[in-house]
Design a protein that fits this description.
Two copies of one chain form a homodimer. By secondary structure, chain A is mostly helical. The first copy, chain A, contains twelve helices and no strands. Chain A folds into two domains: 50 residues, Arc Repressor Mutant, subunit A (Orthogonal Bundle); 134 residues, Tetracycline Repressor, domain 2 (Orthogonal Bundle), CATH 1.10.357.10. Helices cover 77% and strands 0% of the residues of chain A. Chain A is globular, with a radius of gyration of 20 Å. The structure holds a DNA duplex (18 and 18 nucleotides).
DNA sequence: GTCTATATTGTGATAGAC
DNA sequence: GTCTATCACAATATAGAC
């Protein structure tokens, strides 16, 4: 599936995205990326020195898709419940459009946890403002007491997990076709924030 | 770290567990498994014909650890809230003791989703009873209405996700050492069921 | 820039001595 | 059963023609 309107470098990156996110670094083959791009193996090395460099591009892109944008959102001055609704909807949407990103990023990070240290310190990813906002609401008596880190973890878990566990969920839930699963996840854009708000509201 | 009181076959399996669960099938090297077992590469092939066979042993074991036992638990006739508490506590405990199992199983399943079809149909994993129990509670008016599949998904997500996303969570939550993370997860054995029950109780 | 051909290294697997 | 040595092939990477 090559695009005639992309230059070679773009075609390679696009193909690499597909193969790396599906197979991971170790599972990916340079030959498969070349095939997917409709070009020759040697060209991969012409544009990107080696497999590592090509992977690095794809991984960074995927990480940016998954983490910083949305953490930024948590820093806004929106009221807590609105923020939770907005976050879940936007985040789940990102994954509906990029269903392989979560598994890919999480797997590669656990293969090489040092990687994240650089990325995170470069980007200044700090959910402190969100955690503080939760703490403030608790102190005001506006919501039930909860460890704010637990609330954030639960929010992330409910948004991300279905995409990481898709094969199990699809089978266990008896929604064996993809359309039913997509519907199920689509519906979670509303039900996840509702669930969370029910859990913490007084 | 070889154990003097294990026979060779056991040493191999133990080593394979470590290497496969950490690196995945594609990332694992037979040489590394041999080193970890303190034996020779050729012996791996003597006891297990090839890499696939050895992997199959490890994967099946890991899958059994992660899925069937605990699904069984969902079938008991315990009251819903107790069941949720019991499930979360037991499930999170399993992962505290086997922190690499979730990432390993989920990753390998998405590499090869066909694998699960066999395993699941062989084992008769059906959470129908649990889903039905939730539905009954809703109809009795005992809990808030919710798609039972969403409730199960959320329960699984909150138990499993922290172990899959450990590197990110550790960094983002500023609990950069392992002890703090373990404490955080330990504490979730109580807070996760509490969170869920708060979300659904009337 | 793009290709074919080839070098080089890595890795699973086997042969055969002990 | 366990080892050393080696094979066979797969995969990354490079050389060099066009």
């Amino acid at each position: 599936m090559t695009q005639k309107d992309l230059n070679t470098e773009q075609k390679i990156l696009k193909a690499a995205r597909v193969v790396f996110t599906h197979k991971g670094f170790e599972g990916a083959r340079m030959q498969e990326i070349a095939d997917e791009a409709g070009i020759n193996k040697a060209l991969l090395h012409y544009y990107y020195r080696n497999k590592d460099k090509l992977f690095e591009e794809v991984f960074k892109e995927a990480f940016y898709t998954m983490v910083p944008q949305v953490i930024e959102l948590l820093k806004s001055d929106m009221p807590l419940f609105d923020k939770i609704r907005f976050f879940a909807e936007k985040y789940i949407d990102i994954f509906i459009q990029n269903p392989f990103i979560p598994g890919f990023v999480l797997h590669e990070l656990s293969q090489n946890p040092k990687r994240i240290v650089d990325l995170i310190s470069n980007l200044g990813i700090e959910p402190q403002i969100f955690l503080q906002q939760i703490q403030t609401e608790i102190e005001k008596g506006a919501i039930k007491p909860i460890d704010p880190r637990n609330l954030l973890t639960n929010l992330l878990a409910m948004c991300i997990f279905p995409f990481v566990a898709k094969p199990i969920l699809k089978n266990i839930m008896f929604t064996k076709d993809d359309k039913a699963f997509t519907l199920f996840v689509e519906e979670r854009k509303k039900s996840v924030p509702e669930f969370i708000i029910n859990a913490i509201k007084k």
